[in-house]
């Protein structure tokens, strides 16, 4: 069975959990506590599996792959139905662009190790950290909201009637934004996509608070 190394609050692992649920692929979730003892992702045992010391990591028999987008594209190719990428190549490129706006340009700036460096090494205050956090979410979401405005009339998902990878990346990032109390009132399209996706069991079951390692 597929193994997924993750952590309940990891938004990158959350993306992969949603994709696995949508494709109805069973997996064994293995928790890597990102905070306890300086972070289990930094232990030699875990780094032997993933030298980048980040979750998620997917292990499928003797194949292992890190990076949530690469993992989801692997799942898309191995389990093509239901499709997470549209059929025509132009739409596929647009879906990937939204995913990368989140995965490459928003999320890395707000990742745990970046926040730890800002606080621990550069000694910024909690208030400055929260400003930093919300600044990058707001900047990224402003651009995404504008790019997705055309698709609103076509259906409830980011690209209209069909669920795509873009919805997965958006929902997990909205979870993080809410966790850090970022004001999302200017992003009605993103919020309505999130609300619709969160009515679906694949998204609910993957939600951080529904994971066995969640701290309530
Ligand atoms: N680009 C990577 C990001 C992975 C990542 O940043 N994971 C975070 C959790 S969401 C992590 O493991 N953080 C641990 C740390 O910062 O030490 C992906 O999409 O998989």
Helices, strands, pairings?
Elements: E1 2-6, H1 11-22, E2 27-31, H2 44-49, E3 57-60, E4 63-66, H3 68-78, H4 89-103, H5 112-121, H6 126-148, H7 165-179, H8 188-197, H9 201-206
Parallel strand pairs: 1-2
Antiparallel strand pairs: 1-3, 3-4
Helix pairs in contact: 1-3, 1-7, 4-7, 7-8
Bound molecules: glutathione.
What is the helix/strand order?
EHEHEEHHHHHHH
Radius of gyration: 17 Å
Q: What is the level 1 CATH name of the largest domain?
A: Mainly Alpha
Q: Which structural class do you get from the secondary structure elements?
A: alpha+beta
Please outline the major beta sheet: 4 strands, mixed
Q: Strand order across the biggest sheet?
A: 2-1-3-4
Kindly estimate the percentage of residues that lie in beta strands according to DSSP: 5-15%
Oligomeric organization of the protein chains: single chain
The number of domains is: 2
- Could you please say which CATH topology of the largest domain applies here? Glutathione S-transferase Yfyf (Class Pi), Chain A, domain 2
The tally of helices reads: 9
Alpha carbon gap, first and last residue: 28 Å
């Amino acid at each position: 069975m597929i193994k997924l190394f993750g952590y309940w609050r990891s938004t990158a692992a959350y993306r992969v959990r949603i994709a696995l649920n949508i494709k109805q692929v069973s997996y064994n979730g293995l928790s890597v506590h990102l905070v306890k003892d300086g972070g289990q992702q930094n232990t030699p045992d875990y780094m032997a599996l993933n030298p980048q010391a980040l979750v998620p990591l997917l292990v499928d028999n003797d194949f292992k792959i890190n990076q949530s987008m690469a993992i989801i594209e692997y799942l898309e190719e191995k389990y093509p139905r239901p499709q997470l990428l549209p059929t025509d190549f132009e739409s596929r490129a647009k879906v990937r662009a939204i995913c990368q706006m989140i995965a490459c340009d928003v999320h890395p700036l707000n990742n745990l190790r970046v926040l730890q460096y800002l606080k621990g090494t550069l000694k910024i205050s909690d208030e400055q950290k929260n400003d930093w956090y919300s600044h990058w979410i707001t900047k990224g979401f402003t651009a995404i909201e504008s790019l997705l405005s055309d698709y609103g009339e076509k259906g409830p998902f980011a690209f209209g009637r069909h669920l795509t990878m873009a919805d997965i990346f958006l929902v997990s990032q909205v979870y993080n934004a809410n966790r850090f109390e970022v004001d999302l009132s200017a992003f009605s399209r993103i919020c309505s996509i999130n609300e619709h996706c969160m009515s679906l069991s694949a998204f609910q079951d993957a939600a951080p608070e529904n994971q066995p390692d969640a701290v309530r």
